[in-house]
Amino acid sequence: MSDLTTSQKFGSGPLSRGSALIYTLLIVELLVLLTAIPGLVAMVLLDRDATNLPLMAACLLPAGPSLSAALYALRHRSRDLAELSPAAAFWRGYKLNFGAALKVWAPYLLMLALVGINLTNFAAAGVPGWWGALLIVLAAGGTLWVLNALVITSLFAFRAADVAKLAAYGLGRFPAATLANACLLIVSGGVVFVATEAALALLASVFAGTLLWNSRAMITEVRQRFTRPDAQ
To answer: DSSP string of 3-54?
Structure first.
């Protein structure tokens, strides 16, 4: 009887579930900042100049594994206040997926840096206008792809090549999720434009939670179609 009373007291009501979610988001946010802040601080200190784009990309390298760990922790969070351990889940996800996350994150940053360099030197290059539009589409598509790739690699154990294929497959297979993620990127860009990259970093756990919510149909299909029943 006492065990039942305790279970009802912690985690069964909307207030308890809301408190558990807020606590989890706060802890995950702190850990994201802890693991990514060296690069973020260096990036904020850099001048906004095209010659610094490769350095900016390097500064963002730690953010990939940090976001991956946040996705893992939020996916495996408990709704019960008596059983919360977001820090343990974050570090477990960080250790499990550090290398896998970098395999998709590093090439994306390299692509983004190259696109940025080309766009900032667009006039001097003397190339046709459609080439600039193509580069913007490539950057936008690559960003949507890497979001899918981070979700997949954070929650499942696939080879990097398979993650890349599944992430690309998800863009067309789940247009509503792709559109929702595009809106998420627009909002994130607005935050950076109005404030700074640091402001966006302070919303990293909310960003990760929204990304998970947008990706739930893709996660379900990947689990059901592309993993073994005994691994689910």
So the answer is: HHHHHHHTTSSHHHHHHHHHHHHHHHHHHHHHHHHHHHHHHHHS-S-GGGHH
